[in-house]
Amino acid sequence: MATASEANALGYNLKVDYVIRYSFGDVDQSQATTQLEKLLRSLAEAGLQCEIRQGDESSLLVFVRATKKRLNRAVYRSRVRDWLYGIRNAEPEPASSITPQTEAERLRVISQMITLPTEEGGAGITPKLGEWKNVTALFPLHDEETNKKWLHEWSQKTFLSDDDLDQIRNKFGESVGFYFSFLQSYFRFLIFPAVFGFSCWFLFGGYSIIYTVVNSLWCIVFVEYWKRKEVDLSCRWQTKGVSAVQTKRREFKPEKEIRDEGTGEMRGVFPATKRMQRQLLQIPFALFSAIGLGVIIATCFAIEIFIAELYSGPLKTYLIFIPTILVSALVPTMSAVLMSIATKLNDYENYETSDAYDFALTQKVFIINFITSYLPILLTAFVYVPFASLIVPYLDIFRLTVRPFVSKEHATANCSTFQIDPHRLRKQVIYFTVTAQIVGFAMETIVPYLKQHALREYKAYNKKRNGKLEKNGDKDSPERSPVVTYDDPDEEKEFLKRVRNEVELPEYGVTEDLREMCIQFGYLALFSPTWPLVPLSFFINNWIELRSDFFKICKEFQRPTPLRCDTIGPWLDTLGFLSWVGSITSAALVYMFNGDARTGPNGEPTDIRGWALLLVIFFSEHLYLIVRYAVQTAMTRLEPPNVRKERAERYLMRKRYLESTIQAEANEELDKDDLVSEVPPELTRSALEEDARHNSEHSADPAERFWMRQRGWTESAKVGAGIIQAQPSTGTAKKQQ
Amino acid sequence: MATASEANALGYNLKVDYVIRYSFGDVDQSQATTQLEKLLRSLAEAGLQCEIRQGDESSLLVFVRATKKRLNRAVYRSRVRDWLYGIRNAEPEPASSITPQTEAERLRVISQMITLPTEEGGAGITPKLGEWKNVTALFPLHDEETNKKWLHEWSQKTFLSDDDLDQIRNKFGESVGFYFSFLQSYFRFLIFPAVFGFSCWFLFGGYSIIYTVVNSLWCIVFVEYWKRKEVDLSCRWQTKGVSAVQTKRREFKPEKEIRDEGTGEMRGVFPATKRMQRQLLQIPFALFSAIGLGVIIATCFAIEIFIAELYSGPLKTYLIFIPTILVSALVPTMSAVLMSIATKLNDYENYETSDAYDFALTQKVFIINFITSYLPILLTAFVYVPFASLIVPYLDIFRLTVRPFVSKEHATANCSTFQIDPHRLRKQVIYFTVTAQIVGFAMETIVPYLKQHALREYKAYNKKRNGKLEKNGDKDSPERSPVVTYDDPDEEKEFLKRVRNEVELPEYGVTEDLREMCIQFGYLALFSPTWPLVPLSFFINNWIELRSDFFKICKEFQRPTPLRCDTIGPWLDTLGFLSWVGSITSAALVYMFNGDARTGPNGEPTDIRGWALLLVIFFSEHLYLIVRYAVQTAMTRLEPPNVRKERAERYLMRKRYLESTIQAEANEELDKDDLVSEVPPELTRSALEEDARHNSEHSADPAERFWMRQRGWTESAKVGAGIIQAQPSTGTAKKQQ
């Protein structure tokens, strides 16, 4: 049953479920017409009603609405599938009485009606692929009123309630719901380290052992908590085990078709071993990424040190920006190159399901991100600080570059007077955890918003000008002019304008936002002992992040098609991994930098001993693993509420079924006599017994003779009692003694 | 459909399914009689036929056989439960046509008929517990003929075939089947390191890097292989997910009864947090075990070194055995004490299910075993060898003990002449991997067998003597004498004698055998670089082990009640853990002992540097983890054959169901007209269109007006085509250019 707000939303969007953009810019008109006809026919056959309006110069907007009966049937089918895969416990009620529970379910099912192959009951439209490559967009419309209301509400409270998260899920589907839940849990969990970190910073400054231990522990607890929470959410949102229903990638290229022995169907296969061989390319890719990015970062780093701490020639105030500019220019370029290689590699690995594809891509993305995000700090902490005095002399090569331009005596400070900047590490951490977060927020939310508005303005201006030009020059072709100014009915004008704006927006993917959060978590796990205010900064940042991400989804992206999921997927592993690496780096940081006594004459920690450092790392890491195991064990014992509920439901369902089975048996039993009954008549028993024995002795089968000796349990009891009484009664004897 | 051999076996055992021993030695005769009656009535009501025979002086043997109809119904019920829990894919056929597939299933179901509570359709007999504490044994009878045949067959081949393993499973159930499969897989996997280890030993001697690397890799592959194999086997034997059907422990003591919100039933609960608090006791327990056993082992070790390498007084040849005797006496005693503490602790932790109980107990057992098995070698390698020269002077305390007995000059060799025995480590490894295995085999198989025979002889002798005595002294009580000599029918004499022997045997538990194998695997993972012949020794040992274990089950234990399982359980984690620890110890061993150049003047490795050792360990461990991750990933991609089959079946089942749903819809559709049809008459369409538009403009609902503009997909197509043709045809234009 559609809720009030839902009905409202649908009304607001003129009950449009999905909008399809049909682009005909690059094909022949007659072909475009035929294809359009095919599209409409397919949709109609799948039970979808259409309306067509003009898009822009080279596209049509096809508005799609599902007819109630067909929608209900599709919902039924989807639920039957869920039930068969064990996602739902109870067999669904019949199709006639079924309705989508949430807007997200409605939209998801309609999206299936559009995209599933015809043999599975859909229309078989695959946007941007193969024969449907003219279908360039498929998306539902934003419910702007609700979005605005929520943004307003949330801006006035600190935490989203479970109810708010349910609302998000009902509107945008489980995938987005999981992201916001994660963000919310993470945000809520940050309170503790924010407060604790602030206290530690106030009392001990950086590198305090107690902060490091607590921080590591917090990381473990958070990751494990989130694992449980995921299960809980997936029970609450009824998506537990949804990854079992895997959708095949349409881009999958089978190597050969074989007849499946089990199912007897032809299906395309791609040998796992061959894929594995291709996956081996990941190793050179990882190495190449590490070297490529590493060289850029290390070089810029070296230049920076050279200019900041050795160079004393002219223009130093300006030159100091060179490395920053270089990094800002080169690293994103290199990342983009690597990303495109990663995508190609991933395509080449030819995964069969979207999940596998996403998982593999995430891994590659993570490698790139790990290097770009953490390598600079790692270089400072574990190369620059301990080995600076060994490396700095080699920076002479830069002096050679500089020499042509400046006189020799100006060129550089003397190497021997070189001083390690002891605050460099902290400054860098602050840069990455505060400045970079703010810059990121601006780049991700504000800039696209401004750009998009500017673009619309520009387009409108352009169109106006063109319209004017055409009106002036082309008066004799009156059928063309309405195309440009849009001949919309008055009452639809506002609506169509909105749709035309939305159709221009990019598609939203939740991965990007998850990635950002995981990388942020990494700073916390890996480097926060350097500056214990990191969690506080993130706490503030994430309050904004949650709202701005929602704003972004509502304003800067097409409304995403609801997807189901029961986990944040590979990012969960990433969190675990980062927290593990954190146990190594933070132990090393604390050992190396804790206490000022260790600092030597030129700012270098003198007292670091290799074996002690390694021992600290060894203990820290293994302690981490043991504690993690303990926390994991403890967590599995505590059953989240929704899991318990789900289990109870399942149990009840089973119990009912079993009871009915036993009941049926009991009824059956009443009608019939049983072999082992008390019926054998008391009176003639001894006679019968004798008979039986007599018979049995002549029977051929020794087993039958054995089993005929005693008839019915009463007789056995008699025999047993006889034997018992024949014994010297030790029990009673003892008692009497 | 019982197979031929099965029918044979049942015939051989006179078609007896289970034997119950009812002991009445320590209760009053009338009470015993009442209780026996109750037992027999319960059995009869559950559909089981009974025969009673004399056991020994204070027990009865109740032979139990299931009636066919009731058995089939119980099988049906068990399969329905499996189906509901997702263990079986297909809903079972009706009860009337169902029969147990294997002897193990038959026995398992009958055991359920006997032990399940009455409300679940069983007889509610709980051996040794509560009101049934007089039921002191419940077991099926051995099928000696088949056992003998198999032992004979297997003694003539190297590897058991899959078919042999299936046979074991059919006879003894999945639990025993899993153990033998594991043993067989392990044995087969040992070929490679046996050959490779032999070659390395021949070519490089001990501590070769290449052997260590290959060995670690092998450990990873074996553990991961077995994980896959388990899944494969559980599909083959249809027990996948069987652990979901957890049986409640009857010993579980709930803290309070609460009404379950979901199911509305009263159930006993024990708060997880409280259990966790109790589990914290494991920490002092582990410490206590480590210290208790550690002190014993270390002390004996120190005494041994003192006597062997420092002492040169009289009686040295005899005194040298003191530490060995001490270890042999004290360690098992201490272990037994610790085991009883562990069991008490485990009982105290009050687990709700048997699985959880076993898991927790296994963990504790593993701690004790880890210390007793590996600590002596670890002490030699990482304490004695590197630190001997520091520790040996402290052995002076022993000199004080010795002094009263011997003259001073004899007492000890001078400390300065003390020489570390460089072969000590190797000797110790050889002892644990060869000698101890042989001793273990003897203790576990041969000794109990002899003991059991001796006991029978003794009993028979005793009985004969008593019989004689009674005959002589007690002539006037003729009903007593047959009790002692057993008044069995002639044709049953042989059979009953066999049953009376079996009833005396202990119960078999598979855990003990699995433990032994896991500990053995540990030697391989942890210490085999010291002496690369270890895998060869184990290979030979395990050929015998498999046969002797089977012999043991057949001859020295009651036939186990078939249990289902889908894994070797917690021991799997143990294997993974040992292989991980192996990556640390073997790297350390190789670094410390590889190359003789490192040995100093008194046999001590001089060149060991703390940081280098730690670095080697760090790299080795992390390399291990990375490789393990890679192997795991690769393994998950390769689907075992039975898993594929199972998936195909499940898929087919789902497909059939979904197809029937879609078919039903399609049929329905044929009857009715659809909203979106092509029917709108071609002729009057434009008129209708106009009408509709006209109407819709006056309609109150803007959404309805929107959706009424185009009627049916054909009209939409027309409108679309109009718009397309109205555009300057860029596509065609481009092509023409």
TrEMBL record, chains A, B:
UniProt-annotated stretches for the region Disordered: 467-488, 686-705
Listed InterPro entries: Anoctamin, Anoctamin_N_fung, Anoctamin_TM
Protein localization: Membrane
Membrane spanning residue stretches: 186-204, 210-226, 285-308, 320-342, 374-395, 429-450, 571-593, 608-627
Membrane topology: Multi-pass membrane protein
Keyword field contains Transmembrane helix: yes
Top-level lineage group: Eukaryota
Biased amino acid composition, Basic and acidic residues: 467-479, 687-705
GO terms assigned for molecular function: chloride channel activity
Gene Ontology cellular-component annotations: cortical endoplasmic reticulum; membrane
Domain Anoctamin alpha-beta plait: 15-135
Domain Anoctamin transmembrane: 168-649
Entry keyword Transmembrane: yes
Keyword annotations of the record: Membrane, Transmembrane, Transmembrane helix
Main location: membrane
Pfam hit, one: Anoctamin
Designated name of the protein: Anoctamin/TMEM 16
